[in-house]
Amino acid sequence: MISRRHFLKVGGLSVSLAGLADSVFSQAPAKPQAKLETLSAGVKPLGPEDYANRVQKAQKIMADHKIDGLLLTGGTSLVYFTTVRWGVSERTFGAVLTRNGAPIWVCPAFELERAKELIPQGQEILAWEEHESPYKLIGGILADQGAKTGRLGIGPSTSAFVFYGIRQDAPALDLVDGAVVTEGCRGVKTAKEIAFLDLANRITKLAYIEGFKSIKEGMSQRDLSAAISAAHQKLGANGSGGPQFGPGTAFPHGTRVPRALQKGDAIMVDGGCSVEGFSSDVTRTIVFGATSDKQRKVWDIVKKSQDAALQAARPGATCESVDAAARKVVEDAGYGPGYKYFAHRVGHGIGMEGHEYPYLVKGNALKMEPGMTFSNEPGIYIYGEFGIRTEDCMVVTESGARLLGGLPAVGIDKPFADK
């Protein structure tokens, strides 16, 4: 048992960790444990200066790519740049970032007062009545910036009807993909954002440790999921873990076929939580009861594959080279070729969304930069038998990469390191 308090200090974030059990998983009765404590209570949220820095970075990228404006409608990127959460509907609402100044908003007139509650004070809002075109307003924003025939970047999550509406009602504009701006900003995290990710991943791992204490023969997947969710809550985050038992673990994202836990079953849990809008993504695979030689062998291969991906991740390395490093270990061990057993890419970007740009996959020649964050999740899936996946998130540093949240997997019988 960890008898003293541990402290996670990353990028100015300081939180304490409560005492934990001697072991993560044991068939013996659990010893009385210290009460789980929230780890998120002292987290300092992002402030106005953080959002201003994001907009300034976007404006620099826009200038570099000769983009005069960027349209953001409801979705994660709108929240990222403006703090405003707004549902997607048939009525166009959003913000236009220009190369200078604060965002300019386009809003249905009947929603104006609600919008004023969300939009930072002092930012311009252009309202349109039900019979009017919001797309002409968008064209007018760029015209007022001296870019009547300029290039308007369209945010990646923008609905198609908005794109076609602008093309019809503001035909002088050159509509281009705005992903170069949104992904260029969101793909590289700041120290504060990395601290949120570190804590989110730490909380999920501690929640798994707590949830695994409830494992017993005959339990349902829902039972284990509930225990992990409850542990997340006690640790100060809304989170979950989706378990699969036995042959269901061979389905990378699970099967709908329920199963009561039996001796010898592999148990795969994949889940996460969010801290200040930044997500964790953690998978662990263990075995209930005696572990077979084949289960142990496959687990060891997957762990070596994950280690190879971590070693390959560094500034200047291509995203596809990290996938290749992990895949080579699996194929060299006889579980190939290609996607035959290792059925998916080795990782995805992670931040405000669980899966986001950039992706660690063959064909992606994007070079890594410090501050990029990814899942690292190789797996081997043998239908009719079992699957093994080990997943931790990682951040690219100046000298290489490190896992987020600590507590790496050690063995199939020890899914988390002691600290």
Tell me what the structure shows:
By secondary structure, this protein is α+β, with helices and mostly antiparallel strands. It has 2 domains: about 10-30 and about 35-40 and about 190-405, Creatine Amidinohydrolase, CATH 3.90.230; about 70-175, Creatinase/prolidase N-terminal domain (Creatine Amidinohydrolase, Chain A, domain 1, 3-Layer(aba) Sandwich). It is about 30% helix and about 20% strand. The chain contains 10 helices and 19 strands. The chain has a 6-stranded mixed sheet with strand order 6-5-4-3-7-8. Strands 9, 10, 11 and 12 form a 4-stranded antiparallel sheet that branches. The radius of gyration is 24 Å and the shape is elongated. The model is unreliable at about 1-35 (pLDDT under 50).
| CATH homologous superfamily label of the largest domain | Creatinase/methionine aminopeptidase superfamily
Q: Compute the separation of the termini in Å.
A: 11 Å
Structural class: alpha+beta
Individual helix count: 10
CATH class call of the largest domain: Alpha Beta
Compute the average pLDDT.
92
What letter string, H or E per element, gives the SSE order? EEHEHEEHEHEHEHHHEEEEHHEEEEEEE
Output the radius of gyration.
24 Å
- CATH level-3 fold name of the largest domain: Creatine Amidinohydrolase
Strand elements, count: 19
3D shape: elongated
Q: Largest beta sheet, briefly?
A: 6 strands, mixed
> What is the topology, as strand order, of the major beta sheet?
6-5-4-3-7-8
CATH architecture of the largest domain: Alpha-Beta Complex
Low-confidence stretches: 1-33
Helix proportion? 25-40%
- Approximately what portion of the residues adopt beta-strand conformation? 15-25%
Domains (count):
2
